[in-house]
Amino acid sequence: MTRILRAYPDELEIQSVREGIALAGQILKEGGLVAFPTETVYGLGANALDADACRRIYAAKGRPSDNPLIVHIADIADLERAAVRIPASARMLAEKFWPGPLTMILHRNADIPDATTGSLPTVAVRFPSHPTAMAMIRAGGGLIAAPSANRSGRPSPTKAAHCIEDLDGRVDMIIDGGEVGIGLESSIIDLTEDVPVLLRPGYVTVPMLRAVLGDVEVDQAILGSDARPKAPGMKYRHYAPRGQMVMVEGDEHAVAAYINERAGAFSAAGKKTAVLCAAQSAGWYDREHLRVYCLGSREDPEQIAANLFGTLRQCDTDGMEEIFTESFSVGDLSGAIMNRLEKACGHRKIRIPEDGIIDDTGRSERNEDSIGE
Ligand code: TXA
Ligand code: MG
Questions:
Q1: CB-based contacts of 9: which residues, under 8 Å, 6+ apart?
Q2: Residue 81 belongs to what H/E stretch?
Q3: pTM of the shown model
Q4: Where are the domains of the chain?
Q5: How many CB atoms lie within 10 A of CB 293?
Q6: Separation of 248 CA from ligand 2 center, angstroms?
Q7: What is the structure's pLDDT at 224?
Q8: pLDDT grade for 365, boundaries at 50, 70 and 90
Q9: For the domain with range 244-351, which CATH number is right: 3.10.180.10, 3.40.50.11030, 3.40.630.30, 3.40.190.10?
């Protein structure tokens, strides 16, 4: 049976909530699984020092076990319990971005079992800023391994209802801390190489990292090359809705015209068709043949990021079979938003050129399996 505990950040002082968090800590110490809110997405936690507990995470998610977990801390002193030979660069980043949406890859402390790190010599560490997460991590002993709390392959959860949808009956407790603030997973930076390498784009952007570290490289796999990604989880096709999804790029009016035309054909064939769009273009779509999902204003990329995963899940709930999305190269968060959207599309892209002749071959699924994070 899965217990549901409501523990919004402003409720943590309430006696019954404190008792609930203490119970979550006890469940974690006894090897159980607790889903919990963070400022990025919900995580599925287990004691990072307990190999059996971490194996249970893989089983509950249906996640491949070569895909390592992030160790979450809630006290900077615990960094040394997770990692060794911690470079000055990590201290500088921690000072600037922790607690917050940044994960660092460091040399692993031998106390962290293989089951947590997928047998890698390195370990991913993050200090989340969500008050409920911090309270639970401390109650659970300080080192909590957690991937995102979705069934493998589904979009990451941004509210407790998503965790319940995916994990009810498969975990011991789900803590409802309300909707998350950011909605995209943390940025991941590898500090074990000579030059730091960004492995996953997130809310902490490359310019922000360069301002602290100077030189920062970006893993080629993020930029769309066929290179094998350095973060094992980045190779999987994930975030994907069940329907076929494709991104359409080009002049915005031409994009809308193309999608309307295709939607007409799909709807004639009896297929439920959707478009993910910005508020600016939401009025241009043919609502007779298309369900319109507005992610938010192009002037508010944070809103677009926060709505993205929930909207992908809504497409599944609504049974959408053909899904078009506009391109969202919007401000500092574009790298992170486009990375998730391109994965959701399995890298299928249609570019509407200025001469109007369409090349819709796109790129087929690049080294991606049907299962994911
Ligand atoms: O925002 C987040 O990071 C959320 C919340 C819950 O903290 N967590 C999350 O975890 O997104 P997950 O498991 O869905 O993604 C972790 C990523 C995977 O791509 C994994 O391969 C990579 O981190 N990773 C973990 N340990 C690594 C390591 N030692 N070296 C390289 N990549 C690693
Ligand atoms: Mg994940």
A1: 130, 131, 132, 177, 178
A2: helix 79-82
A3: 0.94
A4: 3-223, 244-351
A5: 20
A6: 25
A7: 62
A8: very low
A9: 3.40.50.11030
Largest CA distance in the chain: 66
Angle between helices 131-139 and 15-29 (to 10 degrees): 50
Task: Compute, in angstroms, the gap from residue 110 CA to the centroid of ligand 2.
Answer: 24
- CATH topology for the 3-223 domain: DHBP synthase (3.90.870)
pLDDT at 304: 97
Pocket test for ligand 1, best of 185, 186, 237, 238 (most atoms within 8 A of CB): 185
Residue 369 has pLDDT above 70, yes or no: no
Instruction: Using the predicted structure, report yes or no on whether residue 236 has a pLDDT greater than 70.
Output: no
68 lines ligand 1 (CB under 6 A): yes
**In this predicted model, what pLDDT tens digit does every residue of 301-348 receive, in sequence order?**
999 999 999 999 999 999 999 999 999 987 889 999 999 999 999 989
The residue with greater pLDDT, 239 or 265, is: 265
Name the one residue in this structure whose structure tokens are 């926060």. Answer: 306
Helix (H) / strand (E) element for 304: namely: helix 301-317
Q: What is the mean pLDDT of residues 61-90?
A: 95
Predicted pLDDT at 370: 41
How far does the centroid of ligand 2 lie from the alpha carbon of residue 43, in Å? 8
Q: 339 with 327: CB under 8 angstroms?
A: no
Of the candidates 260, 264, 265, 218, the residue with the CA atom closest to the CA atom of residue 352: 260
Instruction: Pinpoint the alpha helices (H) of 83-195.
Output: 88-97, 114-117, 131-139, 160-167
Residue found by looking up tokens 């007779």 in the block: 288
